[in-house]
Specification:
Layout (H helix, E strand, L loop, with lengths): L3 H7 L4 H8 L3 H8 L12 H12 L6 E3 L6 E3 L10 H29 L18 E7 L3 E7 L2 E8 L4 E6 L2 E6 L5 E5 L2 E3 L9 E6 L2
Antiparallel strand pairs: 1-2, 3-6, 3-8, 4-5, 4-7, 7-10, 8-9
Helix pairs in contact: 2-3
Amino acid sequence: MVDLRAERERRGMTVEEAATRAQIPLRFVAALEDPDNNPTPPGPFIHSYRRQYLEFLGVHEALPIADFETNAEYTVTTPTIPISEVPLTRLLIAAFVLTTLVVLGLRVIHAVNENPNTATAASEFPVAATPTAKLRIRAIETTWIVTRIDEHDSYRGFLAAEDHIDLQGNEIIELYASDLTNISIHYNGDRIEPLGNLTLGRRLVFIQD
């Protein structure tokens, strides 16, 4: 059985100093060192404090010590590291984990560079086509117009005098105007002069070759 008092005195500490440095209440330290003359305080903490005190003293936990609840031998089977060595151990573990992560990351990067098939080539991503059809509509007088670009509605409403809108598409631009005499139209920079009766509502379709 480990003599905790002797272990503490061998380290040149008073019981008060040991309690303060181990961060264990003095009454628990006294009960741990001399359970016959100091009754074990009630509660579930005595076992935790016993393990903590052993670690503080640097005593191997596999050594048997008195079981203060049953007065039988109590053996802790898991060896622990003295508390003075814990910070260094944690630093070593953290350094090992960090090194492992860095190595794994470098291996992944190397594997991707060695096998470009594992990465998605830039050409696999769809590239939006550059609009090739451009239509400018300028209102001479306020006019109701409706426009569609590549079979999708784009504008519907009145275009006020002197205002204009610019449309860009890849294939088809459609224009409906209530009165073509009230607007001017430029397609790809060229002015368009529609034929026929321009005062009636007309639908014009511009198809990019």
